[in-house]
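#structure-requests
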Amino acid sequence: MTNNFTLITGAGRGIGFEIAKKFASNNHNLILTIRNKAQKKRLENLGKDYDVKVKVQVGDLRNLKFVKKLNKINFKVNNVINNAAGENQKHFLKVTEKELNDMISINLKSIFLISQIFTRKMIRFKIKGNIISISSQLGHIAAYNRSIYCMTKFGIEGLTKSLAMDLGKYGIRVNSVSPTKTVINENEFKKNKKRLNLIKKKIPLNKFSTSEEIASIVYFLTTKEAGSITGSSILSDGGWTAGK
C-alpha cells in the first residue's frame, strides 16, 4: 500500500467526491473533510473499493476550531486539494455582513489556513508536495450578482500565485483549477433547464464541465508530467473567458 496521502476538503459530493475517487483509484490514501456526517459511509467505502486508507473529518470549515484541529493529523500529506466552497447569488446591495463573513471564511480563510498548516508539515518532512485550490472562471472574470463570490475566487488566484513564489524553494507547487459551470447531477437539468441553457450559450464549446474532467485535471497537476507547473490556473471553461 502506498504511503502517499492526499487531503481533500468538501469531499462528500460533486467535484470533491470525484477528486477523492480519482486519487483513490491511483492508489492514494485519503484524508477527507465533510460537513454532512451522512456522507461519511460512502467515502469510507472508497477505501474498500480501492484498497487505500480513508480518514474522514466531519466539521464546518467556517469554524476556526475545526480548521485548526486538522493540525493534529500526523500523516505525511503529499497533496492538499482545497475544494470546499460556498456560493452566493445576491446583488451587491443585498449581501449581508454575515453572508460576507461566511463567504470569506470558507472560500478564502480556510484555504489559507489549511494550506499553511500542511505546507509546514511538508517542509518539516521534506515533501515536495502540491497545494491545489478549486477556483472558478469567476476568479478571472466578473458576473452579475456574484460580488462576494467573485471577490473570494479572485482572491484564490492571487493567493495561488503568491504561494507559488514563497514555496518554490521548497519544491512545493501551488496551482488552481478554474471550471465553468459544472453539472454534478441530472436533477440540475430538470430544475434549472432554462437557466442552464442560457449559460451554455455563452460557452464556445457548448458544453459544461464535468466533475470527472475537473478531477482528472487536479490529479494531473500532482504528477511528474506537471513538474514545472506552479503559480498557474488551469481554466476548464469551454472557452468562456477567451473572448466575446
